[in-house]
Amino acid sequence: MLDAFFSPASVAVIGASREETKLGYAVMRNLVTCGYPGQLFPINPKADEILGHKAYPSVLAVPDPIDLAVLVIPYQFVPGALRECAQKGVPAAVIISAGFREAGREGVEREREVIAIAKGGGIRIIGPNVLGVIDTHTPLNATFAAGMPPAAPIAFMSQSGALGTAILDLSLGGGLIGFSKFVSLGNKADVSEIDLLEAWADDPASRVILAYSEGLPNGQQFIDVARRVTRNKPVVALKSGVTSAGSRAVSSHTGSLAGSEQAYRAAFQQAGVLRAENLEALFDIAQAFAYQPLAPGDRVAIVTNAGGPGILATDALEHAGLKLSRLAPETVRMLTGFLPDAASAYNPVDVLGDARADRYAFALEKVLADANVDAVLVILTPQAMTEIEATADLIGKQAVGQSAKPVLACFMGAARIQAGIDVLTRHRIPNYPFPERAVEALEAMSRYRAIRARPLPEYTRADVDSAKVTEVFAQARAEGRVALGDMEARQVAEAYGLRVPASRLAATADEAVEAARAMGFPVVLKIASPDILHKTDIGGVKVNLTNPGDVRDAFDLIVYRAQRYEPDARIWGCQVQAMAPKGLEVLVGMNRDPQFGPLVTFGLGGVLVETLKDVTFRIAPFSRHEAGEMLSEIRAHALLDGVRGGPPSDKAAIIDALLRVGQLVTDFPEIVEMDINPLVVYEPGQGATGIDVRMILKEIG
To answer: Per the CATH hierarchy, to which homologous superfamily does domain 502-579 belong?
Structure first.
């Protein structure tokens, strides 16, 4: 539990100062002026009293228990102060001080020392290098920010303290942005996003949780915790820095397609976390969740006094996958009877530019009462006849009066509409300056409703031969290799129940002919080498060989090309493989993300995979339902159902392959990359065959 950070009975400010230019003064001032009801102990050996509170030379001199220590001292004094906190029995500490991991190698060592002291003393830490902690309900403001934000049902965590100061200042500018809790996480030496998610999951003061993160801790644990939290409370995250990670050299198709951005997208999707693309969207979405009921469906009605904005909103709804409500005949009849002849009684309901407050009120009342409507967007542009404040007041009263459907406003303009926006704010109606931003918030509500409705994942395990995989890997390790040869990779695939064509390794052309005769023509020949992964790039594959002469010629040519283009490669000969029937070619692969672990890929396969990049990702393990979702997420998903008279594909076989690959890479974390490309999929009930299997193991040492 993190209660000591948010509702402490007493707070000690280590480094409290009488000088107004010092951070220690700012923290003390905020604690005093916010109305913190507990005991305050400024710690400063050179002062007797600070801001009306008796000062002490150290926490050990304080006669009463201390729940929370806030450290605002130079980094070199932090370890000693933390040892005294441990001796005093302080359970929680906020280390505002900088100069730790963010300061380089020496800072890393200093941070390790601080962590060791805290763990040894049973102290939970937020920081170092943070802005501080706020709880508007205690109230508590243990930060050096310039002021206390208004109370609102929004809990916000930020890895960036500087960003936090800007957002806190934004909240002081009016409007609906405020907070129940605010935490600057800084270096996250101890308390992380995961801890705060767990702490805020059941917080009655917080209806929505926001997170700005530059990097998450334990990826799998984050998914597990966030998945539990998002069943009951929306979590909206803004993740930055997704383009710099995952830049190491890769050998597989999957490795070249995967990266930090794809891993975070998959992780957030599986965890039920809503992804905001920027700060503007983060707080647009937050306001809708904080102040409005969750829309029961995707049918949206628009009430507007201007045709153009209504059309823009309609377009935005369609692009977002939402529906324009089809109003009930009785609703249309009542609207037609009340509105002027030139008005539109259909959705969007256009009350015309000369509409006064009563016309808006009537239209909104009837639309809200319509069973075919799940949410309403009210658009207002400031015309000469518009009663802006009165209209805003009636919108607010009707929205609060029904409390079952969200009502969002889009009062467009600036100077003339500000008074109306202030009225909407008093009624807790979110206002958006443009229709598209309001629709983005409604889309987030729709996505969250789907998150709550989807089943909890059930992980299944297939009966596999893991001992065979261990044996294959051990042989490769014994030979000092991290890349498996084609035959070895096929053996691993077969051990996990993945179907592959009949195949034999031939060291000579004569052996290749013998193998081809045994399995029957036509056949495929591939170069067999653990050092040549992309065989087609060097002409190392020949298909549809129909007689012994073709096989012999192909063997000699393939080996010649391999030796010419890869003179240092180990050449084992050629793999003779039965020709598989034609089908739809897809890709199933995996790249191990350093943050989240095995990132499994699905998409169109063959030679165009890296060009088209029509792929989707999941973090393993995942459920059968989640595997099924992957099939519908690629742009070319219609091909799986058959197009232009073509047969549909065996989706069940693809899902089974995805689950088996997910199980394999979870069971064997030493696999860092793998591809099955192509996986040829046949008609329903006919299964799928992995034509080419590549696998890379983790380097040892």
So the answer is: ATP-grasp fold, A domain (3.30.1490.20)
